[in-house]
Sequence to fold (128 residues):
Amino acid sequence: QVQLVESGGGLVQAGGSLRLSCAASSGSFSTYAMGWFRQAPGKEREFVATIIWSGGKTYYADSVKGRFTISRDNAKNTVYLQMNSLKPEDTAVYYCAYCAASRLRLGVPMARYEYAYWGQGTQVTVSS
Fold:
């Protein structure tokens, strides 16, 4: 089993910054990628960013590119999401997600079904 513990959400004014953290207890699993998704009220959960654990390559949704940065600390098995220049439309519950490595795992996981484990979610509210 993989357990994900998130922290760092909160209320911020437009233009401000927040940093989310997600610590993974991955047990016997090897990490392929860890990502962030978000879900606004009345909307589907959507991809925000992901980082491929081996090599550290990163990928972002167009809506956050240039404003958000995903990073990792291998030693702590932790992924971060630095969010700058926040906008009211970034308001959502943010979820950390874990994609385990396997012999068949290739490419960049951006779909929800590619992540088997999820954090509890942390609220980010951006006021105008």
Remarks:
- The two ends are 40 Å apart (CA to CA).
- The first strand starts at residue 3 and ends at 7.
